[in-house]
Amino acid sequence: MLSGALLLTAVFAALAVVTAAGSGGWRLGALLVTWATFGATCSMVLRPTGRLIRRAAPPQERTSAFAAQFSLSHSCGLLTYPLAGWLGAAAGLQAAGPALGAIALLAALLALRLWPSSAAASIKHEHQDLDEGHPHLCGARRMPTGWRQSHDFVPDRLHAHP
Predict the structure, then answer these.
(1) Which pLDDT tens digit goes with each residue over 95-105?
(2) Are residues 77 and 40 in contact, defined by beta-carbon separation less than 8 angstroms?
(3) Cα(38)–Cα(10) distance, rounded to whole angstroms?
(4) Rounded Cα distance, 151 and 148, in Å
(5) End-to-end Cα spacing for the chain
(6) Which residues pair with 138 in a beta bridge?
(7) For residue range 100-145, what is the model confidence (pLDDT) as tens digits?
(8) Residue 133 region by backbone torsions, left for phi larger than 0, else alpha for psi between -120 and 50, else beta
(9) At what angle do helices 93-114 and 2-20 cross, to 10 degrees?
(10) How many of the other CB atoms lie within 10 Å of CB of 113?
(11) Residue 117 in 3-state DSSP?
(12) Whole-number Å distance between alpha carbons of 30 and 53
């Protein structure tokens, strides 16, 4: 997802270059490639969202998490679609491309800063209060103090939010 967000910045820059070029038979092909790349990078960002929410939210909170993601994504679209149209009409596509690319870069940098790294998302911990045979202990090692395991962090009744 992060790779797609960062690539989106480059796609907007490419769009600005293609639209700024005065003429040339190469422009149509370059524009088609840029549009296809734009679609692919948007898919890289949006497609894994459901898996991300399922992994990050406990089952009883998933409905709220999906609703919040829907609201946030549509709010962003409600702001950026009119901005793109207004900038494109008022200043031209040469100005709209870099401006939208800057927004994409800012969003990617915010995601990098706010979302935990994969190392932070994987937790090593012990359970002292679970009986042998508990389904959560699959793959856990028996230690003198309890069961030790490592897995992706999912906040639930067995794991408090870090």
Answers:
(1) 898 999 999 99
(2) no
(3) 10
(4) 10
(5) 23
(6) none
(7) 999 999 999 998 888 766 545 566 777 778 778 887 777 788 888 8
(8) left
(9) 170
(10) 7
(11) coil
(12) 36
> Where are the chain's structural domains?
2-115, 122-152
Distance, in Å, from the CA atom of 137 to the CA atom of 140, rounded to the nearest integer, reads 5
What's the pLDDT at 20?
85
Q: In the structure encoding, which two tokens stand for residue 104, read together?
A: 């994409």
**Cα–Cα distance list, 36 to 67, 85, 96, 136, 160 (Å):** 29, 20, 18, 43, 42
Separation of alpha carbons 162 and 154, rounded Å: 10
Query: b or e along 19-55 (b: 16 or more beta carbons within 10 Å of the residue's beta carbon)?
Result: beeeeeeeeeebeeebeebbeebbebbeeeeeeeeee
**In sequence order, which residues have a C-beta less than 8 Å from that of residue 40 and are 6 or more positions away?**
4
How far is Cα 158 from Cα 107, in angstroms, rounded to an integer? 32
- What residue spans of 47-92 are helical by DSSP H? 49-56, 62-91
How far does Cα 34 stand from its chain's mean position? 21
Q: Name the residue type at position 129.
A: D
Which element (helix H / strand E) includes 4?
helix 2-20
